[in-house]
Amino acid sequence: MQGKALPGFRDFYPDALALRNHIFATWRSVARRYGFEEYDGPPLEPLDLYTQKSGEEIVQQLYAFRDKGDRDVALRPEMTPSLARMVGARAQALKKPIRWFSIPQLFRYERQQRGRLREHFQLNMDLIGEGGPLADAELIAAAVDILRAFGFGPEHVQARISDRRVLKALLLGRGLTEAQLPIAFGAIDRTEREQPAAVESRLVQAGVATAQAKAVLETASLRGLDAVVAALAKVQGGADAAEPLREVCGALDAMGLGAFAQVDLTIVRGLAYYTGTVFELFDTGKTLRAICGGGRYDDLLEQIAGVDLPCAGFGMGDVVLGELLKERAVAVPAPAALDAFLVAVSGEDVLPVIRLAHRFRDRGLAVEYALKPQAVRKQIELAVARGAPRAVIVGPDERKAGIAVVRDLRAGTETPVPLAELEEGGWTK
Ligand code: HAM
Questions:
Q1: What does the mean pLDDT of the chain come to?
Q2: How far is the CA of 122 from the centre of ligand 1 (A)?
């Protein structure tokens, strides 16, 4: 025995894979409803695609190594830099706005815990070439609609929305400098995980004056569009900064999704490249980390591909979502079961059974038969264990009479059906 899979990596047994497939199918169907096309990129990328652009946290979690050609490479920890490169390379030719989605497997060397693994699958939906707030609202709506498609309501999940332009205006207005903003954003990102006093002392240690450190915490505690707009009214450039957030909220209301959304300035996002609207979806019980996160990143394409195109998007992982679905015991469609199990009564019936089975398979029916001669009782046992609704029993007497017996395994009834009829139309006739 070779022991277990690596920590944080999953074996997908059929029932686990059925859940994963159900998640993927729902993701694809909602993405399609929003007119998104599917793409993919390579799982292994040049290391520097991430070291410059993704931000400190993700870089520390990279699975990185030197390959046999002496290249520094990394397993992709996120999809956004690959997407930026791919779109950048064909930016002229692609019709804007580009609506693309992907379901990559991603790798991060994280401390393993509930909802956090070292590999996960992540739906990415990104809208490129449109800088307005309706694009942001469209993405938040798509994320919410995925949760709705799984049966969640506003009592179960909430989108918490913020805007880095708003945070910037408020923080500059309270005396922070432009250079201190990354430190302040990092501190705000930690307010969920750390005590306010710890966050404040971290800021002070980083050179932020105590009054400004307090201002950072006060800003992060603002909740609701009205409170944010009121705070913005007091700072220079505040009215302009408020506009996109106001429009995002207005659009979500018009879509009938207002109950799913709340303005919450603790959301800033850990990744370095966000420039505007940022959002995360959480379960209202807040037992788990974010189900999904994303936002606007208008400078990344310029940095990676030298192309000036505004972008926004989000990533939604399968792990947190899977936990929530299990918690709520959401029914997962069973993987396709057999249409029939074919039973050979004697050794001589094996070849006629195989012949019939392949006729059925050619017609798209799912059938199985025993792979070696076995007692009829054993074959029926396996048929029942497989969940087959019926057994098609072929024996010497039946063959002589040109028939097979179709046994309904649930009702226990038996019907003789001419073999010719079975071959042409099956038992459904
Ligand atoms: P992220 O916040 O790092 O964003 O990840 C998005 C989501 O992926 C998280 O909310 C979580 O559901 C899931 N996730 C992340 N790390 C793990 C993990 N170790 N185990 C399980 N699930 C995880 C991004 O990756 C951005 N690139 C998203 C984006 C796309 N922004 C714009 N476009």
A1: 94
A2: 7
